Amino acid sequence: MTAPRVLLATARELPRPVHENTLLLDAFAARGVGAALVPWDGDADWGAADVVVVRTPWDYPGRAREFLAWADRVDAVTRLANPARVLRWNSHKQYLLELAEAGVPTVPTRVVRAGARTAEQRAALRGLGEVVVKPGVGSGARGALRGPAGSPAVVEHLEQLATHSDVLVQPYVPAVADGELSVLHLGGHYSHAVCKLPATGDYRVQGHHGGSVRRHEATPDERAAADRALAAVPGGDELLYARVDLVRGAPVTAENPAGLQLMELELIEPELFLGSSDGAADRYAEEIGRLLG
After folding, report:
1. 126: how many CB neighbours lie within 10 A of its CB?
2. pTM of full prediction above 0.90
3. Which of 1, 37, 157, 267 has the fewest Cβ atoms within 10 Å of its own Cβ atom?
C-alpha cells in the first residue's frame, strides 16, 4: 500500500467529532491525494509523508514539552505545517506581549510566572477591575476565570494556577459579549471569517461553553487588523494556516478606525470553521497541495 502523502496530526481522543477533518479528507480524496488522520503521539512514519499538517492535537496543552519535541522531530524529517519554530513561539501566550511591543493592538496582558511570590501575584491584579485569569499555555478557555481583580475567588485561582504554570491576567473586554471575530488565513491569504458569540451571561465563545458561530464576511478594517498581527509573527511567511481572533474595544485611531484588538493568534491547532464558508475545505486542500510540489 502506498503511504499517504499527507498526514494530518490529531489527538488519540477528541471531545467531539470534528466535521472539518472529514471535509478535508474528502477534499483530498476528490483530488486523488492520499491523506490520513493520525495521532501525533502515535507510531506513524512521519518521514514517509511529504507534508505533515498539525490539525487537531487538542490534548497538547497538558503535554506541551512532549508535543513540541515531537514537532521538532517531524520538522527534521519532512515538511511540517505550521513549522516547529512557529508552534513553539505560539504555544505560550506571552507572544501577546511581543506583538504588543511590535505595535499590534492587543488585549493588555500581564504574565505571572510559575512559582511567583504572593506579592508578584497581587501586583499583577493591581489597578484592574474585572479580569480574566488563565493559564499561559492552554486552549478552549480551560482554566480561565472571570471576576473582580480583588475578589477572593480570583486571588485564589491565580494562586493555584501559579503553583504549576505561568498565568495570564487580562482585563475583561465587555465587547466580547457582542462577538469575537475569527479571521482565517490559508496559504498566507484571507480565506473566510466567522463571528463567535458567547451564551447569554457568559464570556466564553467556545461551543462546549454554550457559544455559537455565525458566518461573517470580514470588513477591510478587520482584514487589515489580521494582516497587521500576522506580519509581526516570526516566521509568518511560512504559515500554512492561521486564525486571528479579534475583539473591539481598543482606542480608535487613524490606523485602527474600528478599534480592533487581538484576543489570540491561533497557529497550532485551531478550529478553522471550514464548514462555515463555501469551498473553504477545497481551498485548504489546494494550499496543502502546493506544498506537495
Report:
1. 10
2. yes
3. 1
